[in-house]
Write a structure and sequence with these properties.
By secondary structure, this protein is α/β, with parallel strands linked by helices. The chain contains 14 helices and twelve strands. The protein has three domains: about 200 residues, Ribonuclease H-like superfamily/Ribonuclease H (Nucleotidyltransferase, domain 5, 2-Layer Sandwich), CATH 3.30.420; about 90 residues, no CATH class; about 150 residues, Up-down Bundle (Taq DNA Polymerase, Chain T, domain 4), CATH 1.20.1060.10. Helix 4 crosses helix 9 and helix 6 crosses helix 9.
Length: about 475
C-alpha cells in the first residue's frame, strides 16, 4: 500500500491548504464517497463527504473528510471547490458504487455529472476472471475485496461500527421487554412472559407486526415506539428494532470518520493495484464502455416508476388474508400448528402422518416426492400437505419481496418506486436490478383467482402509450 496522509477538514484554513496542495501536485486520479442517513437513492442525504487522490509521481495518497452535518456551509464550499478542480483536471474520478454517491450529491443540490467518472468495481470485474465469488471469484464489496487483496485488517473499523449498531439495537429492544414486564402473552403462545425470544419468534412471521399483539401489549408497544425509539428510525420499525435500522448518524463520530477515510484509501488502492492488470488484459475499452453508462443509468434510476399505491395496498390485504386461510388449511391437514420453516417437523409429519420419507424439505426434493406419489396413484392427502407447504412458501416470499418491500418505499406519501442498476452484478456482462425479476404471471388462489401481479403496480406515464414492453 501507499503511504496515506489523512486530513479531516474543520476550518477554512485546512480547506485552503487542501486546495493549494491539490494545485501544486496536479494529480489525475481521485475518489469520493459519502456516509448517509439511509440507503434510499432519492430520500437519503449524506452527512459526511470524503475524497482523495493519488500522488502523480510518489507512492503517496491523500484522503480528506468533511462533516456536512456539523459544518454544512464549510462542507458545501469544500465540495464545490474540490469538484470544480476535479471536473477540469482529473482523468479518473472514482467511487465504489458510484451512482449511489452521485444520487447523494444530487440530493443536497451539488450534482457532479462530468464524464471523467469511473467505479472501482469496474476494475475488480475486469482485472479478474469472470467468476462469481461462490466459485472462487473476487468479492465486489469494498471492504471484502480490500481485506482479501489489499490489507488483511480492512474490516476492522466496519466491525466496530456494526458492533455499535448491534449494541444500540439490543438496548432499544430490551427497553420494550422491560415495559412489557408483568403482562402475560396469550395462552396459545406457550409463554409465561414477553421475553425477547418470544417477541422475536412472533415477529419472524412475515405477515405479523405490532398489531398482532394483544390490546394491553399494543398500548405498551406504542409507548415504547414513541418514547424510547429514536425518531430517525421510528418509520422503519413495525416489530423489533433491527441493526440495519440504526443510521450511521448516531454512531461514534471518531470511528466513523476513520472508516470514511479508509473508504477512499481502499477505493484508490484497488484502482492503483488493478489498473495495470486491466491494461495488460486489454480490457480498457470495456471499462470505457461501462464508464459511458454511469450517467445514463443514474438518470434512469432517478426517474423511477410511478406506483399504483392503491393496487399495492389492496393486494397486501388480499395476500395476507389468503396466507392465513391457507395456514389454517395446513393446520387442519396435520391437526396441529406448524411453521413452514420448521423443516425437521415437516419431515416428521410426512413420515408419521402420511407415511412418506424424504431426505430434505427443499423445493426440488418435495417436487420429486409429489411426482412419485402421484405416479403411485395413492396418498392424495400427502400430496395436498406438500402442495400447501409449497404454496405457502411462495405466498410468504412474494408477500415480503414484492409487496411489503415496496409498500415500505412508499411510506410518507411517496408515489414512485426506485431501483438501482448494477453494472457489474453478473459476470456475464448483464446489468442486475431488483426490478428485473418480476414474473410474468402473478400469484393466484387455488381456484385461479389472481391475488397480485407485481407488474400491475407500475403505472405507465410520460408518453402517448398505455402499456409496458419487456425486452430481453
Amino acid at each position: 500500500m501507499r503511504q496515506w496522509i489523512s486530513t479531516t477538514i474543520t476550518t477554512n484554513r485546512q480547506a485552503n491548504e487542501m486546495l493549494d496542495l491539490l494545485k501544486l501536485l496536479a494529480p489525475k486520479v481521485g475518489a469520493f464517497d459519502s456516509e448517509t442517513n439511509g440507503l434510499h437513492i432519492i430520500n437519503s442525504t449524506p452527512f459526511l463527504f470524503q475524497f482523495g487522490y493519488l500522488h502523480p509521481t510518489k507512492h503517496v495518497g491523500y484522503s480528506y473528510a468533511v462533516d456536512l452535518e456539523k459544518q454544512p456551509l464549510l462542507g458545501r464550499q469544500v465540495i464545490t471547490c474540490w469538484h470544480d478542480y476535479v471536473s477540469k483536471n482529473f482523468i479518473k474520478y472514482l467511487a465504489h458504487n458510484t451512482k449511489f454517491d452521485l444520487h447523494m450529491l444530487c440530493n443536497i443540490g451539488l450534482p457532479y455529472l462530468t464524464e471523467n467518472l469511473s467505479d472501482s468495481m469496474f476494475y475488480i470485474r475486469y482485472a479478474h476472471d469472470a467468476v462469481q465469488p461462490a466459485n472462487g471469484g473476487p468479492p465486489l464489496a469494498l471492504k471484502d475485496y480490500a481485506s482479501q487483496y489489499i490489507a488483511h485488517n480492512a474490516k476492522y473499523q466496519d466491525k466496530l461500527l456494526q458492533s455499535e449498531r448491534a449494541s444500540i439495537t439490543k438496548e432499544l429492544n430490551l427497553k420494550l421487554k422491560i415495559r412489557l414486564k408483568g403482562l402475560v402473552p396469550p395462552t396459545d403462545w406457550n409463554a409465561k412472559a414477553y421475553t425477547l425470544g418470544v417477541l422475536t419468534d412472533m415477529f419472524k412471521d412475515p405477515v405479523s407486526d405490532w398489531t398482532w399483539l394483544p390490546e394491553d401489549a399494543q398500548k405498551v408497544y406504542q409507548e415504547w415506539l414513541n418514547i424510547d425509539v429514536p425518531e430517525v428510525i421510528r418509520p422503519s420499525v413495525v416489530a423489533l428494532v433491527e441493526s440495519d435500522f440504526i443510521p450511521y448518524t448516531i454512531l461514534n463520530r471518531e470511528t466513523l470518520i476513520k472508516y470514511a477515510h479508509l473508504d477512499i484509501v481502499y477505493a484508490l488502492e484497488i484502482y492503483d493495484h488493478l489498473e495495470p492488470i486491466v491494461l495488460a488484459r486489454g480490457n480498457e475499452t470495456a471499462i470505457e464502455i461501462e464508464e459511458s453508462l454511469i450517467i445514463p443509468l443514474w438518470e434512469m434510476e432517478r426517474t423511477g416508476f410511478n406506483c399504483d399505491i392503491d393496487y399495492l395496498i389492496e393486494s397486501q390485504g388480499k395476500v395476507k388474508e389468503y396466507i392465513l386461510e391457507r395456514r389454517q388449511a395446513l393446520y387442519d391437514l396435520c391437526q396441529r400448528k406448524i411453521n413452514i420453516g420448521q423443516h425437521a417437523l415437516v419431515k416428521e409429519i410426512l413420515e408419521t402422518d402420511f407415511n412418506v420419507k424424504c431426505t430434505s424439505t427443499n423445493k426440488d426434493i418435495l417436487d420429486v416426492v409429489v411426482s412419485d406419489i402421484i405416479r403411485a396413484g395413492d396418498n392424495p392427502e400427502a400430496v395436498e400437505f406438500i402442495s400447501t407447504i409449497q404454496e405457502l412458501r411462495t405466498l410468504e416470499k412474494w408477500y415480503s419481496a414484492y409487496i411489503m418491500r415496496f409498500i415500505r418505499q412508499t411510506k410518507g406519501g411517496a408515489t414512485r418506486l426506485y431501483t438501482t442498476i448494477n453494472q457489474v452484478g453478473a459476470v456475464t456482462g448483464r446489468v442486475t436490478s431488483d426490478f428485473q425479476q418480476f414474473p410474468k404471471q402473478g400469484i393466484t388462489k387455488v381456484d385461479g383467482t389472481e391475488l397480485f401481479n407485481p407488474r400491475r403496480m407500475v403505472i405507465c406515464t410520460g408518453g402517448a402509450y398505455n402499456s409496458i414492453i419487456y425486452l430481453d
